[in-house]
Amino acid sequence: MLGIAVAQRGRPRPLREMGLGAPVGRALAFALLATLPMSLGFALVSRLNPQLTLGTIVVSTIIAPFAEEVLFRGYIFRQLYRRAGWPFWPAVLVPSALFALLHVYQATTALELLGILAVTGVGSILLCWVFARWQDNLWAPFSIHALMNFWWELFAIDDTALGGWYANGARLATIAIGVLLTVFKDRVWPRLAREDANVAFAATPPGGAPGALATASLAGRAA
Prior knowledge:
The chain is mainly alpha-helical. It has helices at about 1-5, 15, 25-35, 35-45, 55-85, 90-100, 110-135, 140-155, 165-185, 185-190, 190-195, 200, 215-220.
């Protein structure tokens, strides 16, 4: 985090540069709706975690997701995609590979390792896509990341990011709803397009990297 702050020194509005200057409310509402399959699904089949502590909640649902989103999405992905002008897929694969490798410590077998790499890698790709489609509003991927972690911890689903069939079914449903809400967000929340359309471009100076214009074309293709 300190290294990112130093790297951003001298650039205008460093919080906006990483997507932290965008509105929070809609991003949180988006995440609450998207994670309903996890919150309701886990509540139906699991009990509350009796060993859950405030410290665990703070670390796993606030500190860790925030640090990961700032580093992998707000900094690495945004610098490659916006500043360096990389195409979307190369720009998303670099932070996603690093994000997946960050979680390999959770694996105890080769099969578990492959599963964790797949789950976290695909999850990172989704979060990068959400970040880009939400006009570089980092609160959108952070909110969904934090709430997914919260429901996972609240109901003690698994000690690792892998989970079982039911847990991953709920997670896939969350991803599906998140994608649909993101694709159709301008219709669901019409004011969002008008108020936040320039968030992604505000921190990119005139004549900046061609990646600064990529979200518009990506949004058009995905819609």
